[in-house]
Amino acid sequence: KLDGRGTYRFFESEMDARMQARRKLELDMRQALARREFQLHYQPQLQLESGKLIGCEALIRWRHPDRGLVSPLDFIPLAEEIGLIVPIGEWVIRQACRDAMTWPSHMSVAVNVSPAQFKSDRLVETIISALATSGLPARRLEVEITEGVLLQENEKTLQTLHRLRELGVRVSMDDFGTGYSSLSYLRSFPFDKIKIDRSFVKDLATKPDGEAIIRAIAGLGKSLGMTTVAEGVETAEQMQRIRLEGCTDVQGYLISRPVPTEDLLEVFATYLKA
Ligand code: C2E
Ligand code: MG
Ligand code: MG
Ligand code: MG
């Protein structure tokens, strides 16, 4: 069928197919906000000492018309690259604040803020506006950043972090331990919370030193006055070990998978009864 249209052969090379797929994803993503295809799921965090749920992390989902549910791992990097993360991230912050207002008043909501979003001048204003519009007290909002934000550490990054802190917003270091210099970043800003990356929790069962690492991070958090959350806790054994090693909180499938806000009240109720 393509005979005589040799150029198409070239354009249909594998490389080009990938680029077309990417281009299509980009076009779709540009429409997704207006079409209300994004959705937030929430995953609760459990405070070990009290046995209470203390907050939830907002995790974005994209309900694509033909692809179904697209993982953030598959579109956030592209959104960052083309700058769409700024409007998408703004939507996340506003929606998360609104949703959190329907939860018990001691519960906080954590949003992930990516490097490109952090660099944009709008972040602090967006947060101020989202808090004001929703009525959510600043202390109930938490911003999660990864090492990527601090990688281009400069005056402005630190200034933004301090402005958030002055507002009363809490700041967490996400995926702790996976980067090259997690430790030195702890020195640059007084985080409220360290989120220990899921890979360390996984190592508990498989690596002989798995526990020592969790214990060291928990101890570090304690000395620095930061809470420590273990991410990706899937089994009761892992939770038991994590408790023994001194982490303050856990998050993971064992407590609950990320769920839409409508389903959260049921999860909250289970823990209230417990
Ligand atoms: P993250 O912030 O480290 O979020 C934790 C990820 O671990 C989530 O994946 C969550 O569903 C998953 N998880 C939680 N508990 C368990 C467990 O017990 N076992 C396993 N196997 N996985 C668990 P998810 O939702 O696919 O999000 C992936 C990443 O995408 C997030 O990692 C975050 O970096 C990014 N992301 C998600 N939502 C947003 C957003 O609204 N904005 C930005 N900028 N990034 C986001
Ligand atoms: Mg996170
Ligand atoms: Mg994480
Ligand atoms: Mg991550």
UniProtKB/TrEMBL annotation:
Highest taxon above the source species: Bacteria
Lineage: Bacteria, Pseudomonadati, Pseudomonadota, Alphaproteobacteria, Hyphomicrobiales
Residue span(s) of domain EAL: 22-272
Protein name, UniProt field: Diguanylate cyclase (GGDEF) domain-containing protein
Signal peptide: none
